[in-house]
Amino acid sequence: MKKILLLEDDGALGNGICLALRSEELKTVLCRTVEEGLEAVSEEKFDLMILDINLPDGSGLDFLKRIRETSSVPVILLTANDLEMDIVVGLESGADDYITKPFSLAVLRARVNARLRNAAQLRDETILIDDFRFKFSEMEFYKAGKPVELSKTEQKLLRILVENRGHTLSRTALTDKVWTDGAEYVDENALSVSVKRLRDKLEDNPSKPRYLKTVYGIGYVWAVK
Q1: For a Cys-Cys bond, which of 26, 61, 117, 135 suits 126, CB 3.0-4.6 Å?
Q2: In terms of pLDDT, which residue wins out, 79 or 194?
Q3: pTM
Q4: Does the pLDDT of residue 131 top 80, yes or no?
């Protein structure tokens, strides 16, 4: 079953959207504040998010930016702000789609289904970037046609970076995502070591990486889309 997070403070609209999206394949979790939304994402993994921008305790855009630190989950913004600059800001903040109020529930449902289909295809597809070919579902990795052997940790790290390519991920976020085995303590150098090993295997010049770049004071980014 696919799970959708709906962040909407208008109770009537939120309930209407939940009814419109209800099916045996979809579960929609309605949150009315940023705080409720953050609590929900800490407890569950969602396949898509629908975010209102103007919320009683903050902005859906700020919520989106926090989500993008660790996830490439599809996001649709809902808002009454229909100026061109508002749309640009929303998309540049990491949104995949933008719907202005008032809107048709049928259109929203169609866009939700389209985003979910696209996300499923991306999970299964082979990712081609320059001379690289990555198929994570089969654990196959090639550079210039030659197979590259990666450890389980290196595979997890590469997948997170590639799925969020173009977005800088903090060291803390990467550590939490890669080492999810419940270990209470992870050596602070573990991430640096894994990044170095990935660069040694993938970069032509690991000391001057083109793909897996360091964003000093923050973390790392897969820079080439």
Answers
A1: 135
A2: 194
A3: 0.59
A4: yes
